[in-house]
Amino acid sequence: MASTLSTETIRLGLKNLRLHKLRSFLTALGIIFGVSAVICMLSISEGASASEMELIELLGTHNIILKSVKPDTNTEMSQETDSLLEYGVTGKDIEVIEATIPHIERVVPMREVCFEVSYGSRRYGAKVVGAPASFFRTINVGVSAGRPIEPHDLTTRAKVCVIGDEVRRRLFAFEDPIGRSLTANNLGAGAIPYEVVGVMERVLTAGRPARGIGERDLNSDVIIPLTTADTRYGDTIASYTAGTREMRKIEYSDVYIRVSDLEHVKPVSEMISRAIEYKHESEKDVQVQVPLARLRLAEQEKRNRQITLGAIAGISLLVGGIGIMNIMLASVTERTREIGIRRALGAKQRHITTQFLIETVVLSTAGGVVGIALGATGAWVITELAGWETIVRAWTVAVSFGLSVMIGVFFGMYPAVAAAKLDPIEALRHE
Questions:
Q1: 76, 184, 205, 337: which one has the fewest Cβ atoms less than 10 Å from its Cβ?
Q2: SS3 assignment, position 65
């Protein structure tokens, strides 16, 4: 008997929805738009954060980066035709850091030596950077073709290079660059050919200073052995700016310092900052960047953005839930006599409650499913039309669907209980 009543309760709940298709659809619209809004807004937030998070992880959470920065020069020297501006990280800085600061696994110095490369008649404004073989392990970038710089390249001061993917695309187009030679053009040293021995994997998140981390665009870099850079170019770079020939002496443009354990990154970075400030206090020509600290901040910003956008989108779900409750309260009034008849035939309060809850849960669940499809489609349309990167995560779909079901239960409970508590005699008398 109980089983029969339960089956009949479910059947009646679904039958009522079928009898009022338009009303059921309009009631579910609030849930549909609410779920799709949650998915779209969270997908925009995920897409906005993804490239920055990947970039920071590329820089390495175990790394501390020293970057040489040109100081403000309003002195008479900067107005001279041939001026020598000396700044940035020096070999003595590295010696002090290695000798006095613990928990350092390795130091990877880098030097920019050229700013244009060519192959045949093609030219491209790439940075030619001298680096040790440990560079690739430190920044977690592999090669898509050929090989990276190896220790014997530094020992022999070989004229070889590993190019970024954008350099490959601009200079070699559809040719295989491995084994071919490109030319690095330097005002002081002239044009020097380098054999291409490898192509770096494309880094989708590189080269965005607007992100605030001052990163390198590895896709547009050409990496040569550091010893080759020392021998061929030294540490003086000549450049022309607004008709003025400027000579810059920079021993190292960047230095990556890898810390042995993640827990030591913060204290080591503080010690390095103090050491740099002591030696470069007047010039302020060295920046200390800590990707781990930036990662923590980016994660916090991401959480705050998700909470804000989720709360805004959640208002749509709340409105949808209120719509369900209003419709179900009207349905209770409309079906008062039906409820009285069911109670007279032996249905208990829990059967009436279950019947109305089934209707609200079916409405909210169906709305959730349609909303998920609409939200995923909306995210794709945003990417295609606006060019914004959107990422629909599995947890976003699960949370949105779970909220839709919970709203169906929560806002359907009051009308269901109100229907169950109707007096059977009064319900039968209702016209």
A1: 76
A2: strand
